[in-house]
Design a protein that fits this description.
Formyltetrahydrofolate synthetase, domain 3; Rossmann fold; single chain; Domain 2, N(10)-formyltetrahydrofolate synthetase; 36% helix; ATP-binding
Length: 558
């Protein structure tokens, strides 16, 4: 049996005018700022007007550690949203926007798949409503103003060797990772080393996604540290007087984007911070707005639960006062087999023993999520090659961990296939057994917070950090930053810092290479292992196969 590609399915979508989608949530047409016929921003005035409403139920979708076999976290998020609407709940999906770099690189798009997609798929994976361009522009304005400040006399006495604010572009471009700037003589300033990160790694992106409103946004932008003086005191964005103009550039980008699923259900697609270097969740303003106007909000967190869910709980929920009612943990039979040692080429053949051998990774994630006081439902994202015996093996394993696994066929059947999952999620959420609490308190020492995450989530024996890093953490505590949460930047492929180690390893340690203070976003990044803030393109980038066909339609964007 042959299946249509995601883009073919998306092209056939029977989209409704965005005003009709807004009406499902009770958003008046005058509060939708349309970008064409099928997408719109929701006005700040409307968002302010619903703040007194009671919150709906919050469902987090997360996953096991990603494998080349694919897990389908966004697909399950969209499918569950459609399934909840199918059984009579007013449900909204909240996901992140896609970055151009990975779209043209190896990862591809980020709008779901099969019959569980958000549309317009091409727009969402390309320029969309210009949010990422606005973030790039605001970030670049600050970069320009820092070098301009130094050029015109350096009133703040910035040490040009200690400018920590890098530049950004929304593209995978390894050639820009480390560069020299201000070359070419006196007229061009003072030569120094610099570099580029990808836009989604910008602190501006993290701030946009954690800010409650424009006033909060402007304050957080002002709080960003951009450089240090010779006496090692920090120079803030507000010292450069850039935060006001940056906020102006971000004014529209702060407003959530409303689109629709293939089944014409509402979806907010807004923000997109890196899931390893930042917190990997869609914007607080989109999630909190959706909660005020929906019975159920289904959102996701990047990569596996050891990164995305941990940061959703310890950073996003802590900052925004949120508490999930249920967590859906996505797994596939294929990924279990891969964790069990089967090569990708052999995943189509039945292998129940390999499924059983790969399940400990799933079990570790179930235990971790439960440690936050939130109930778990495992969604087995169905692939056509799965056999009944393999699915039964996963269900039996999950039952031994005090949870239930539900087979969901949303990719193939849309909401009809996700209805059993939706019913189970409602049953669990309505039972009211969630008793959410972050993993650590605000007042715990910074290094102790790192150890808590490493030992309780990764099951590591220790965190290894040299004296320089420990001294830096102590200095930040003395400067009043000790109450900030920790954002662990590590590989998404393993509980360890080694991407090749699958399963549920123990007896390992977590080496911290460097620590970075994101004073505006409000967290401290601990960089573990080799984490790139500017990816490179693969040997055969997806961009090579992207083109317009004779009918003017986009081909190759999946």
């Amino acid at each position: 049996m042959s299946y249509k590609s995601d883009i073919e399915i998306a092209r056939e979508a029977n989209k409704k005018p965005i005003q009709e989608i807004g009406a499902k949530l009770g958003i008046p047409g005058e509060h939708l700022l349309p970008y064409g016929h099928d997408k719109a921003k929701v006005s700040q005035d409307y968002i302010t007007s619903v703040q007194g409403n009671k919150n709906g139920k919050l469902i987090l979708v997360t996953a096991i550690n990603p494998t080349p076999a694919g897990e389908g976290k966004t697909t399950t998020t969209v499918g569950l949203g459609d399934g909840l609407n199918r059984i009579g709940q007013k449900a909204t999906v909240c996901i992140r926007e896609a970055s151009l770099g990975p779209n043209f690189g190896m990862k591809g798009g980020a709008a779901g798949g099969g019959y569980a997609q958000v549309v317009p798929m091409e727009d969402m994976n390309l320029h969309f409503t210009g949010d990422f361009h606005a973030i790039t522009s605001a970030h670049s304005l600050l970069s320009a103003m820092i070098d301009n400040h130094i050029y015109w006399g350096n009133e703040e006495d910035i040490d040009v060797r200690r400018v920590v604010w890098r530049r950004v572009v929304d593209m995978n471009d390894r050639a820009l990772r480390q560069i020299n700037v201000s070359l070419g003589g006196v007229a061009n300033g003072f030569p120094r080393e610099g570099g580029f990160d990808i836009t989604v790694a910008s602190e501006v992106m993290a701030i946009l996604c954690l800010s409650l409103n424009l006033k909060d946004l402007e304050k957080r932008l002002g709080d960003m540290i951009v450089a240090y003086r010779r006496d090692r005191t920090p120079v803030f964005c507000r010292d450069i007087k850039a935060q006001g103009a940056m906020t102006v550039l971000l004014k529209d980008a702060m407003q959530p984007n409303l689109v629709q699923t293939l089944e014409n259900n509402p979806a907010f697609v807004h923000g997109g911070p890196f899931a390893n270097i930042a917190h990997g969740c869609n914007s607080v303003i989109a999630t909190t707005t959706a909660l005020k106007i929906s019975d159920y909000v289904v959102t996701e967190a990047g990569f596996g639960a050891d990164l995305g869910a941990e940061k959703f709980m310890n950073i996003k929920c802590r900052k925004a006062g949120l508490a999930p009612d249920c967590v859906v943990l996505v797994a596939t039979v294929r990924a279990m087999k891969m964790n069990g040692g089967v090569a990708k080429a052999d995943l189509g053949a039945e292998n129940v023993e390999a499924v059983k051998a790969g399940c400990p990774n799933l079990g570790r994630h179930i235990e971790n999520i439960k440690s936050f006081g939130v109930p778990v439902v495992v969604a087995i994202n169905h692939f056509v090659t799965d056999t009944e015996a393999e699915v039964a093996a996963v269900k039996d394993f999950v039952a031994t961990h005090g949870a239930e696994a539900v087979l969901s066929r949303h990719w193939e059947l849309g909401s009809e296939g996700s209805e059993p999952l939706a019913r189970k999620v409602v049953e669990v959420a309505e039972a009211g057994n969630a008793n959410f609490a972050p993993l650590y308190g605000d007042d715990m020492a910074l290094f102790q917070k790192m150890e808590t995450i490493a030992k309780r989530i990764y099951r590591a024996d220790a965190v290894i950090a040299d004296k320089k890093i420990r001294d830096q953490l102590k200095a930040w505590e003395e400067q009043g930053y000790g109450n900030l949460p920790i954002c662990m930047a590590k590989t998404q492929y393993s509980f360890t810092t080694d991407p090749s180690v699958r399963g549920a390893p123990t007896g390992h340690s977590v080496p911290v290479r460097e620590v970075r203070l994101s004073a505006g976003a409000g967290f401290i990044v601990a960089v573990c292992g080799e984490i790139m803030t500017m990816p490179g393109l693969p040997s055969k980038p997806a961009a090579e196969n992207i083109h317009l066909n004779d009918g003017g339609q986009i081909e190759g964007l999946f």
